[in-house]
Amino acid sequence: MTKSQLIEVLAKEENITLKIAEVVVNTTFSSIENALINGDRVEIRGIGSFKVKEYKEYKGRNPKTGEVIKVKPKKLPFFKVGKELKERVDK
Q1: Domain locations in the chain?
Q2: What is the mean pLDDT of the chain?
Q3: How crowded is residue 21: how many other Cβ atoms within 10 Å of its Cβ?
Q4: CA–CA gap between residue 1 and residue 9 (Å, rounded)
Q5: How far apart are CA 68 and CA 51, in angstroms?
Q6: What homologous superfamily is domain 41-91 in, according to CATH?
Q7: Start-to-end C-alpha separation, the chain
Q8: What average pLDDT does range 5-30 have in this prediction?
């Protein structure tokens, strides 16, 4: 499902305009993004949780040349699926 499809489903299910549904979806995603940028964890009960994982610097290899390279430390968003969703999907 794409973002635009989600907006269409929301508008239809809640009997609201596409514009209002778009604002709701954009506000929700923006709020999650801002929380992660600020280092907060976001939990959506029954679905899962988002958090930022920090990775330390490490040595890797260039797959083309085999040369050892230094990979800088980084932060990446991480989603952990909730137990309820995992069980519903695995029926």
Answers
A1: 1-40, 41-91
A2: 96
A3: 19
A4: 10
A5: 30
A6: IHF-like DNA-binding proteins (4.10.520.10)
A7: 20
A8: 98
